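haha ok so turns out i had the wrong file open the whole time. this is the CORRECT one, sorry everyone. sequence first:
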Amino acid sequence: MGKYHNRKETKRVGQHIKQLRLKYGWNIEDISEMTGFSRSTISAVEKGAETDTTHLIEIAKAIGVQPNQIFNISFDLKPRYKLSQKRKDQKKLTLKIRGMIEAGFFKEPRIVNDVREQLFGQQKLKASAAQISVVLLRLTKEGILRASKSGRKNLYSIK
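then structure:
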């Protein structure tokens, strides 16, 4: 994965850190001494340089604010890229299957085709066995479901 730096947003965060620092009466040298970071590091963060989360946490602590206050500014909540239709469909399928878990559908061990029939019959949601399997396996890895074998078929049930 290539390195990414949203300069516009990190600059806004840096400006907010500077505002907080000044509001609480600290100069850069004070923050530098309390964090152990160089003056140039503090200055770079305030100018919007890419930095580690550790720097932000320690600067917040030195200023005397909770780290979440550093981000207490409004951001445009539009993601960098749109979610693909495939991912949207998988998200929808995952939510439906999670609903089935909560409703107790998996109290008894179920095979993929049981899930598929339930999704189509009750919710008119068409999904392939492969799509359902992907979601069930992920929920198993997350520890939400348990998988066992019946011949060549996987059986899924609540843990």
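The mean pLDDT is 93.
again sry for the mixup
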